Protein backbone atom coordinates (compact mmCIF):
# COMPACT_ATOMS: atom_id res chain seq x y z
CA UNK A 1 0.00 0.00 0.00
CA UNK A 2 1.32 3.38 -1.00
CA UNK A 3 1.91 5.41 2.14
CA UNK A 4 3.49 8.52 0.69
CA UNK A 5 2.84 10.39 -2.48
CA UNK A 6 5.39 10.53 -5.27
CA UNK A 7 6.71 13.94 -6.22
CA UNK A 8 7.95 14.54 -9.75
CA UNK A 9 11.16 16.56 -9.68
CA UNK A 10 11.86 16.70 -13.39
CA UNK A 11 10.59 14.95 -16.50
CA UNK A 12 10.01 15.10 -20.23
CA UNK A 13 7.91 11.96 -20.24
CA UNK A 14 4.28 11.65 -21.32
CA UNK A 15 1.86 11.78 -18.39
CA UNK A 16 0.72 8.20 -18.82
CA UNK A 17 4.30 6.96 -18.68
CA UNK A 18 4.97 9.05 -15.58
CA UNK A 19 2.04 7.38 -13.86
CA UNK A 20 3.42 3.99 -14.85
CA UNK A 21 6.82 4.96 -13.41
CA UNK A 22 5.34 5.90 -10.06
CA UNK A 23 3.14 2.81 -10.04
CA UNK A 24 6.13 0.57 -10.75
CA UNK A 25 8.10 2.26 -7.99
CA UNK A 26 5.23 1.82 -5.56
CA UNK A 27 4.94 -1.85 -6.53
CA UNK A 28 8.66 -2.34 -6.02
CA UNK A 29 8.52 -0.78 -2.56
CA UNK A 30 5.77 -3.21 -1.63
CA UNK A 31 7.90 -6.12 -2.81
CA UNK A 32 11.30 -5.09 -1.50
CA UNK A 33 12.77 -3.40 1.52
CA UNK A 34 13.53 0.30 1.18
CA UNK A 35 17.24 -0.48 1.60
CA UNK A 36 17.32 -2.92 -1.30
CA UNK A 37 17.82 -0.26 -3.97
CA UNK A 38 19.18 -2.66 -6.55
CA UNK A 39 16.14 -4.94 -6.50
CA UNK A 40 13.83 -1.94 -6.63
CA UNK A 41 15.71 -0.56 -9.64
CA UNK A 42 15.67 -3.99 -11.31
CA UNK A 43 11.92 -4.32 -10.87
CA UNK A 44 11.22 -0.93 -12.44
CA UNK A 45 13.65 -1.35 -15.32
CA UNK A 46 12.24 -4.75 -16.24
CA UNK A 47 8.70 -3.39 -16.14
CA UNK A 48 9.64 -0.60 -18.55
CA UNK A 49 11.59 -2.91 -20.85
CA UNK A 50 8.50 -5.09 -21.06
CA UNK A 51 5.99 -2.30 -21.61
CA UNK A 52 7.98 0.20 -23.67
CA UNK A 53 10.74 -1.76 -25.38
CA UNK A 54 14.26 -2.56 -24.22
CA UNK A 55 17.07 -0.22 -23.26
CA UNK A 56 15.70 1.38 -20.10
CA UNK A 57 17.94 2.37 -17.20
CA UNK A 58 16.99 2.87 -13.57
CA UNK A 59 18.82 4.35 -10.59
CA UNK A 60 17.40 4.34 -7.07
CA UNK A 61 18.94 5.76 -3.94
CA UNK A 62 19.17 8.43 -1.30
CA UNK A 63 22.45 10.03 -2.30
CA UNK A 64 23.66 10.21 -5.87
CA UNK A 65 24.34 12.58 -8.74
CA UNK A 66 24.50 11.62 -12.37
CA UNK A 67 24.79 12.71 -15.96
CA UNK A 68 23.37 10.80 -18.87
CA UNK A 69 22.05 11.09 -22.40
CA UNK A 70 18.47 9.99 -22.90
CA UNK A 71 16.02 9.56 -25.73
CA UNK A 72 13.49 12.32 -26.16
CA UNK A 73 10.42 11.87 -23.99
CA UNK A 74 11.87 9.07 -21.86
CA UNK A 75 13.17 10.72 -18.73
CA UNK A 76 11.68 11.06 -15.26
CA UNK A 77 13.18 11.89 -11.87
CA UNK A 78 10.97 11.70 -8.80
CA UNK A 79 10.99 11.05 -5.07
CA UNK A 80 8.85 8.57 -3.19
CA UNK A 81 9.15 8.16 0.57
CA UNK A 82 12.85 8.37 1.38
CA UNK A 83 14.15 7.44 -2.05
CA UNK A 84 14.94 9.19 -5.30
CA UNK A 85 14.16 7.50 -8.60
CA UNK A 86 15.69 8.11 -12.00
CA UNK A 87 14.35 6.32 -15.06
CA UNK A 88 15.50 6.94 -18.61
CA UNK A 89 16.06 5.23 -21.92
CA UNK A 90 19.48 5.21 -23.53
CA UNK A 91 20.14 7.71 -26.27
CA UNK A 92 18.92 7.43 -29.81
CA UNK A 93 19.51 9.94 -32.54
CA UNK A 94 18.22 10.73 -35.97
CA UNK A 95 20.61 9.83 -38.79
CA UNK B 1 60.53 -37.46 -34.88
CA UNK B 2 60.10 -38.03 -31.16
CA UNK B 3 62.98 -35.65 -30.54
CA UNK B 4 61.26 -32.96 -32.57
CA UNK B 5 58.00 -33.47 -30.68
CA UNK B 6 59.76 -33.17 -27.34
CA UNK B 7 61.44 -29.97 -28.51
CA UNK B 8 58.08 -28.53 -29.60
CA UNK B 9 56.53 -29.40 -26.24
CA UNK B 10 59.42 -27.82 -24.39
CA UNK B 11 59.10 -24.61 -26.41
CA UNK B 12 55.34 -24.60 -25.96
CA UNK B 13 55.69 -24.85 -22.17
CA UNK B 14 58.29 -22.10 -22.20
CA UNK B 15 56.02 -19.78 -24.16
CA UNK B 16 53.09 -20.54 -21.86
CA UNK B 17 55.17 -19.72 -18.81
CA UNK B 18 56.28 -16.46 -20.43
CA UNK B 19 52.69 -15.48 -21.13
CA UNK B 20 51.66 -16.34 -17.59
CA UNK B 21 54.51 -14.30 -16.13
CA UNK B 22 53.54 -11.32 -18.27
CA UNK B 23 49.93 -11.60 -17.10
CA UNK B 24 51.02 -11.81 -13.48
CA UNK B 25 53.20 -8.74 -13.84
CA UNK B 26 50.41 -6.79 -15.53
CA UNK B 27 47.94 -7.76 -12.82
CA UNK B 28 50.38 -6.76 -10.10
CA UNK B 29 51.01 -3.40 -11.75
CA UNK B 30 47.27 -2.80 -12.02
CA UNK B 31 46.78 -3.78 -8.39
CA UNK B 32 49.56 -1.44 -7.26
CA UNK B 33 48.06 1.33 -9.35
CA UNK B 34 44.62 0.87 -7.81
CA UNK B 35 46.00 0.72 -4.27
CA UNK B 36 47.93 3.92 -4.81
CA UNK B 37 44.80 5.76 -5.97
CA UNK B 38 42.50 4.20 -3.38
CA UNK B 39 40.38 2.66 -6.13
CA UNK B 40 38.52 -0.61 -5.82
CA UNK B 41 36.78 -2.23 -8.78
CA UNK B 42 33.43 -3.74 -7.78
CA UNK B 43 32.21 -4.97 -11.15
CA UNK B 44 33.58 -4.57 -14.62
CA UNK B 45 33.18 -5.28 -18.31
CA UNK B 46 35.65 -2.85 -19.78
CA UNK B 47 39.10 -2.88 -21.38
CA UNK B 48 41.92 -1.95 -19.01
CA UNK B 49 42.89 1.31 -20.76
CA UNK B 50 39.35 2.65 -20.40
CA UNK B 51 39.23 1.60 -16.75
CA UNK B 52 42.47 3.41 -16.04
CA UNK B 53 41.17 6.45 -17.88
CA UNK B 54 38.11 6.52 -15.62
CA UNK B 55 40.16 6.06 -12.45
CA UNK B 56 42.65 8.77 -13.39
CA UNK B 57 39.89 11.19 -14.35
CA UNK B 58 38.04 10.57 -11.08
CA UNK B 59 41.21 10.81 -9.02
CA UNK B 60 42.29 14.08 -10.63
CA UNK B 61 38.90 15.70 -10.14
CA UNK B 62 38.46 14.55 -6.54
CA UNK B 63 41.93 15.88 -5.71
CA UNK B 64 41.07 19.24 -7.25
CA UNK B 65 37.83 19.70 -5.31
CA UNK B 66 38.15 22.25 -2.48
CA UNK B 67 38.29 20.78 1.04
CA UNK B 68 37.59 17.38 -0.47
CA UNK B 69 33.86 17.94 -0.42
CA UNK B 70 32.14 15.55 -2.80
CA UNK B 71 30.35 17.05 -5.76
CA UNK B 72 28.61 14.04 -7.28
CA UNK B 73 27.11 15.89 -10.21
CA UNK B 74 30.37 17.45 -11.27
CA UNK B 75 32.23 14.15 -11.14
CA UNK B 76 29.46 12.41 -13.07
CA UNK B 77 29.41 15.17 -15.66
CA UNK B 78 33.18 15.17 -16.08
CA UNK B 79 33.39 11.41 -16.56
CA UNK B 80 30.45 11.26 -18.94
CA UNK B 81 31.75 14.08 -21.12
CA UNK B 82 35.29 12.73 -21.20
CA UNK B 83 34.08 9.30 -22.28
CA UNK B 84 31.55 10.65 -24.78
CA UNK B 85 34.35 12.69 -26.32
CA UNK B 86 37.01 9.99 -26.28
CA UNK B 87 35.01 6.84 -26.93
CA UNK B 88 31.86 8.01 -28.64
CA UNK B 89 28.29 8.45 -27.37
CA UNK B 90 26.44 7.59 -25.30
CA UNK B 91 27.93 7.21 -21.85
CA UNK B 92 26.07 7.58 -18.57
CA UNK B 93 27.50 8.13 -15.14
CA UNK B 94 26.06 7.83 -11.63
CA UNK B 95 28.07 8.97 -8.62
CA UNK B 96 27.08 8.83 -4.98
CA UNK B 97 27.29 7.24 -1.58
CA UNK B 98 23.94 5.48 -1.53
CA UNK B 99 22.22 4.12 -4.62
CA UNK B 100 21.30 0.96 -6.46
CA UNK B 101 20.78 0.58 -10.16
CA UNK B 102 19.83 -1.83 -12.87
CA UNK B 103 21.00 -1.08 -16.38
CA UNK B 104 21.54 -2.50 -19.84
CA UNK B 105 24.94 -1.63 -21.25
CA UNK B 106 26.99 -2.13 -24.39
CA UNK B 107 29.50 -4.95 -24.50
CA UNK B 108 32.77 -3.79 -22.96
CA UNK B 109 31.22 -0.56 -21.70
CA UNK B 110 30.62 -0.98 -17.98
CA UNK B 111 32.57 -0.31 -14.80
CA UNK B 112 31.46 0.06 -11.20
CA UNK B 113 34.14 1.16 -8.77
CA UNK B 114 34.69 2.96 -5.50
CA UNK B 115 37.25 5.69 -4.98
CA UNK B 116 37.73 7.10 -1.48
CA UNK B 117 34.20 6.87 -0.05
CA UNK B 118 32.24 7.44 -3.22
CA UNK B 119 30.86 4.92 -5.70
CA UNK B 120 30.92 5.42 -9.45
CA UNK B 121 28.90 3.64 -12.11
CA UNK B 122 29.94 4.37 -15.68
CA UNK B 123 28.36 2.60 -18.61
CA UNK B 124 27.66 2.91 -22.31
CA UNK B 125 24.48 2.28 -24.26
CA UNK B 126 24.16 1.69 -27.96
CA UNK B 127 23.14 4.67 -30.04
CA UNK B 128 20.53 3.68 -32.56
CA UNK B 129 18.73 5.59 -35.29
CA UNK B 130 15.26 6.84 -34.46
CA UNK B 131 12.43 5.29 -36.41
CA UNK B 132 11.15 7.62 -39.08
CA UNK B 133 7.45 8.10 -38.55
UniProtKB/TrEMBL annotation, chain A:
Main location, first listed in the record: cytoplasm
Keyword Cytoplasm in annotation: yes
Keyword terms, alphabetized: Cytoplasm, Cytoskeleton, Dynein, Microtubule, Motor protein
A Gene Ontology BP annotation from the UniProt entry: microtubule-based process
Localization, UniProt: Cytoplasm, Cytoskeleton
Keyword Repeat: no
Gene Ontology molecular function terms on file: dynein intermediate chain binding
GO cellular-component term (any): cytoplasmic dynein complex
InterPro entries registered for this protein in UniProt: DLC_sf (IPR037177), Dynein_light_chain_typ-1/2 (IPR001372)
Pfam family, one: Dynein_light
Family according to the record: Belongs to the dynein light chain family.
Identification of the protein by name: Dynein light chain
Organism: Glycine soja
UniProtKB/TrEMBL annotation, chain B:
Major localization class: cytoplasm
Gene3D superfamilies membership: Protein Inhibitor Of Neuronal Nitric Oxide Synthase
UniProt GO molecular function: dynein intermediate chain binding
Highest taxon above the source species: Eukaryota
InterPro entries in UniProt: DLC_sf, Dynein_light_chain_typ-1/2
Protein localization: Cytoplasm, Cytoskeleton
Listed name of the protein: Dynein light chain
Annotated organism of origin: Glycine max (Soybean)
